[in-house]
Each structure stands twice: as structure tokens, then as C-alpha cells.
Amino acid sequence: MNVSLTEKTAKTLRIEQRIGELVGEMTVAEKIGQMNQVCLVDHAVPEDARVALRSGRIGSVLNVVNVEIVNELQRIAVEESRLGIPLLIGRDVIHGFQTVMPIPLGQAATWNPTLLKEGARFSAQEAAASGVNWTFAPMIDISRDPRWGRIAESFGEDPHLTSELGVAMVRGFQGDDLSTRGSIAACAKHFAGYGDCESGRDYATTNIPENELRNVHLRPFRATVDAGVATIMASFSDLNGIPATASEFLMRQVLRDEWQFDGFVVSDFDSISQLCVHGLTENDKDAALQAVTAGIDMEMAGACYTEHLESLIDEGRVDIGVVDELVGNILRVKFRLGLFEDPYTNPSDFPSKPNADAMRAAKTAALQSVVMLKNDHDVLPLSCGNLRSIAVIGPLADAPYEQLGTWIFDGDPALSITCLQGVHDMVGDAVDVRFVRAMDTSRSRDTASFDEAVRAAQETDLSILFLGEESILTGEAHSRADIDLPGAQVELIRRIRKAGKKVIVVILAGRPLTLTNIVDEVDAILYAWHPGTMGGTAIAELLFGIESPSGKLPATMPRMVGQIPIYYNQKNTGKPPRPHELVFIDDIAEQAPQTSFGMFAFHLDAGFSPLFPFGYGLSYAKFEYKNIRTSIHEVEIGDKLTVSAELTNNGEVGAVEVAQLYVRDLVASVTRPVRELKGFKRVYVESGQTITVEFELQTSDLAFYGRDYKLVTEPGEFRVWIGGSSYADLQSEFQVIARQRGA
Ligand code: NOJ
Q1: Nearest ligand 1 atom to alpha carbon 194
Q2: Which mutation among 231, 300, 406, 479 tests ligand 1's pocket best, with the greatest number of atoms within 8 A of CB?
């Protein structure tokens, strides 16, 4: 055993011993206190909170980020309570603190775990300087529904991408050691299935069969647990008839028994009491009973535990041993954070704000997050040398707050570089920039300023339209049923188009929007999500070719809402559509007989394919994949193989490509997806250069949850693809064979 492992084990044992000793000294009221998280104000410590802290009846506080108040809270807890247990200070640090990174969905479009880790690290440091020691991130809910407002907070539709990025964020927040300065506890949320809410309505019911739950939705959670995430948040939602907050299956069987998770689980905001609203329990006391029995260690912002747990114990309905176990889980995280050694925060120990390094990371993340969806006749990149004037048009061109996106409690819009500013900074005096906002908000239907916008488009060399949706159109409880560009934006595009000049559209949005009604009206589309503080600089650098776009879609973009849920890793069905096929209702022969012969799974009015598939994104380079090969044709279970392909850049500029590896298990004991992402790599390829991209595949990467919901790798034929999107067509095959007996 090496030294660091020995040290780690010794530290773990010490912590377990301290937990045992501390729990042994605690009264029942103090134990329940540790399980209580309260929401306090940021400017003062109210008298009732002081009293509760002194008597050990609060274990955690959320939403206080004034460092003086945080230190005062810690002082009361540590110096004035009997046992001096420090507090967890929680905050939603979702995609940045003061410096705002792109929304998580935008960060996912970078396909760059290193960047996410770095961004989370800066966010952790900025938050820690305010006394925060626990963030409620990352959100790793799989979402296949762009109507859902919280898709903005997710990493999209794919379990592998979400797992890799979720783990990277956890590592960024928590560092190598939770007790080091600037490390904060992460929280993987929302366990589980929240992203599958019916019709994308936030908080709505989810019904997910166990096969799907384990093979898709639970995978990222398993990955973050294996990576040592400190905490998990239960979902608000009802999963298969039992709200997650009361689910023994999720919290006990899966999380603790199967995965051996040893951190703690927090409820969502008041979600224990909401068990009554769900109709699962008659009153808060029963709700407390069900939540504690399921294994919800801490209650966020509710009073079910504080008001009812003690009598439940007295009545013998809750075993004190169960409470001790739950309290121990919370204390374990506090010990790991080093809070008992040093609960206070000295802001001067941290980089000053705003932090130039964090801003640089935010810019890089924004640069890599932008997905180029269209670039007809290479209209992009622009060149200052060829332009005399440009029109900058649209409600999101100069919107410092909106570009930050959802969940930015502590983000500072004053730091934002807007798109207009970015363009100005880029062109200086060389190009005349005419700005017309045209619409007050993206939702506006007032077209009064459109004439002015059209004039600007006529009188300049080309137009760049900054369109999309404001941050308030996404996020918690902000789902949309219609995900076209809102307001009169489509009309604005059509009017500008008529000016007869090139039209470039940059979309700032918190979800994949349906762009079918504008895609043919414009020359180029850059999809920039809500790009955060440095969005304007990044977008300008892409527009003017300082960098090539390298983002790839982390979620499928549907043609129309009726296609949802639409995702690349679907099942084949018994009547699969022909690839990429579109059949529109106008083409259907009149009086066609109703028959199941020769028919396949598609919509009469939308066909089968999405507008843009998962993994898609263009570049200023021209990439071509050739010569896929596997290192061996037969691999024994337990072994590995490599899959490689040649990647050539036939374009005129060097650029980064995200090479993607997909696999299909052709025949299995349960039906398997038509493709599954198994690997991805960001690679830089010079103009004219050919490189080999290589992926290692372990047979364990091919494992899935089978008929008995146990993980299994089955022998058989597998197909592999390497390419630049989930539509990659360069394919090969290999065989997985059972290990020889005795081998
Ligand atoms: C409710 C949200 O669902 C959760 O994600 C968030 O962390 C908490 N509120 C705390 O703000």
C-alpha cells in the first residue's frame, strides 16, 4: 500500500472515530438540529436564529453570502453552542459566482471536461471567499425535452457526456482534498429522474421504467458518487408513484446499499412537507417519517424534522440508530471539509474580485461553447478588411444581464462584455457599427422599430442579429410549450432578409429552440446559449475568425415541438425509419391504404430526423474522417481494444474538432440504443494535416443493466462509429467473446 493511501485510510478512520464520539455526546435535539437547514437573510443574524444556533438546532444555512454574517453565524455555532459544531453554508453556485461561466448546457457544448473543472474551481474559490462551503451543483439530470426550463442547467441528453462533465465539475468544486482552501462540497442533483418531467413542465410527474432509469438517468449519479461527490439532492418529483424524497429504493437501495455512498442527502427546498401535497402523506409528521425512513439526511428549508422527529423517536416509530446514521453522514462531510479545524473565512486569503484568471476561463468556456449550425458559402468568418459597415440588430445584442442566463444569484452584470461591446472592441474604428435594438425584449410583439432596423440593414454591408430568449424564459419553473423564437423575432429576420444583404444570426438561449422557420432565411447561425460574463468577447472572436467554432450540440434540436422527446440514443423499434429520412404530409398519396406493411416510425408532418442532431457543430476548418479500424476483431470480456480513424483538415485554417465514438450492441437480452456515445476528444488539426484519433474501449464500457437490472457485458457483435456528430457514418464492427474457461 502506498503512503498516500495509508494516510487516507488513517484520516478516514480518524473521522469515523470522531463522528462516533460526537454523536455519542449529542442530545436528540442536537441531532435533529444537524439535520435542519434554514434559509436566512444576508444582512443580519435574526435573534431567533441566534437562539437556535446556540442550542444546536441548526446544522446548515442557505443563501447567506455576506462573509461577515457567515463568520458571525459560524462564531455563534462554534463558540456559543454546547458542542461547537460548525455550519454548512449552502448556495446555488451553478455556473459561476461573481464571474459567470456559460450556462451548464453551454458548457456541455464544449465537450471539454478540463474546462468545466477549471470553471468550477474558480467558482468555488469566489464562493469560498464569501464563506460558502457547499454548492448545490452540478445538476446532472438527463433531459430530452427542450421545453423544460431547467435543461439550461443540465448537460443535455447523453449519460456519458453528462457523467464525464458532472465528474469534472465535482472535481473542480471539491479539489483533490475537500479541506483545502477554496474547495467546497458539491451536490449532485436531482436524484433522480427530474429531467424526465412530463411535457417538460417543471416539477411534473416522471414515470421511468427501471431499465431506462438505470441505463440512462442513474448513470451520471453513479459516476459522481464514484468520484467522491460529498452530497446528493433529492428531486422534487414523483418517480413511478413515489416522490423521490420518500424513495427508499433510490436513497437506501441504490445510493447506500448498491453504490456505498457515504456523504449525505439533502431534500430539495421544502420537499419533505410537499409529500403531503403529492398526496403521499396526510401530514408533516408522516412526511418526516417517510423521508427519514427513506434516508433523507437533511431537510432543506422546512420544519418537518424539527417539529416532528423527536416525537416520532419517542413513539418508537423512528429508531434513534437511524437518526444517528443520518447525522453521522452530515458530520462526515463537515469533518472532510475541515470545518472543525477552521470554520472561518478570511476573504484576503482569496484572489481579489473580479479575478482576471476567472474571467479568462469564462472567455475560453464561452468560446468553446458556441455551436455553428450553418455557414452558407463560408460567409463567416468576417474580415474587417472587407467590411465598411455592419448593422448589429436585436434585443440581446446589448443585454448584460440576459447573457448571464439562469441561476446567477451572485453574478455581476456590470462585469459582462456584451455582444455589441465585443463587436466594437473587435473592429475598432475600422468598421462602422450601427446598432438597432429593434425589440425591447425577445418576447416583444411591437414592430415599430423594425423599419429602422431594415434601414440599418440596407445601408450597411451585412447584418448580425442577436436573438433568442432572455434568461427568465428558462430555469426553475420556467418551461415553455412553444420553443420557437419568441415575440416578433421571426418577422424581424424576414424583414431584414428582404434588405438583400447577408444575414448572420447569433442565438442566445437557455435551451435548444426550434429554428425550422428561420434556418432557410439566414446565411449563418451561431448558437451561443447564455454565454456568461465574457460572452461578447468570445462571440466577436468567433465572428471574426480569431478562433474557429468548436462547440457541438449536447442536445438534439428538434424541427418542431411535436417530435419531443427526440434524442439520438433511441431504440431501433420493430419498424425503424430509414436514416435521415424526411416524409412530409404533402407527399402522402391520397387514399393510401392503412397497412403496417412497409411502414416505419416517423411523423407524417415532421419525418424522422431532427433539425440538428446531437453532437453536431460546424467549423471554419473542413474535417474529413477516413479509415476506421479496431485494434482487434475479437475481444474477450474483461479486455480492451482501441478504435481509431484518420482525421484530415481539408480547410484553410487550423481548428479544433470534437471527435466522437459511438457504439451499438447489435443483439442483446434487452433492446439497446441504436447508438451510444462512448468517447470523445477535442483535437487540434492544422490545415492540411491528417492525424489519427484513437479511443480505448474496455468491454466494461459496453455493459448495461439487463433483465434483472444487474450490470452485464454480453458477448456478441458490436458496431462502432467515429465522426463529428451522432450522424457519423464511418463504421466498423467487432465481436465481444466470453472469456475462455480457465484463462
Ligand atoms: C430548488 C431547486 O430545485 C434546487 O436545485 C436548488 O438547489 C434549491 N431550490 C435551493 O435553491
Answers
A1: 3
A2: 300
1 confidence band (pLDDT: 50, 70, 90) = very low
CA distance 203 to 325: 30
* Domain spans, the chain: 360-543, 623-737
Active site residue 268: yes
Low-confidence winner among 3-7, 347-351, 654-658, 680-684 (lowest mean pLDDT):
3-7
For residue 302, how far is its CA from the centre of ligand 1 (angstroms)?
A: 13
Q: What is the pLDDT of residues 131-186, one digit of tens each?
A: 999 999 999 999 999 999 999 999 999 999 999 999 999 999 999 999 999 999 99
Q: Which amino acid is at 213?
A: L
- Grid coordinates belonging to 468: 433568442
Q: Ligand 1 mean position to 138 CA, how many Å?
A: 11
Under CATH, domain 360-543 is a member of which superfamily? Glycoside hydrolase family 3 C-terminal domain (3.40.50.1700)
Among 476, 411, 409, 473, smallest CA distance to 39 is for: 409
Note whether 270 and 301 are within 8 A (CB).
yes
Does 297 contact ligand 1 (Cβ within 6 A)? no
CATH architecture of 623-737: Sandwich (2.60)
Catalytic residue among 141, 268, 286, 665: 268
Q: From ligand 1's centre to the CA of 300, what distance in Å? A: 9
Residue 273 has pLDDT above 70, yes or no: yes
Distance 503 CA to ligand 1 centre (A): 40
> 559: Cβ–Cβ under 8 A, 6 or more apart, which residues?
514, 516, 606, 607, 609, 610, 611
Residue with the smallest CA separation from ligand 1 atom 1 is 269
Chain-wide mean pLDDT for the chain? 96
Strands 711-712 and 704-705: antiparallel
pTM to 2 decimals?
0.97
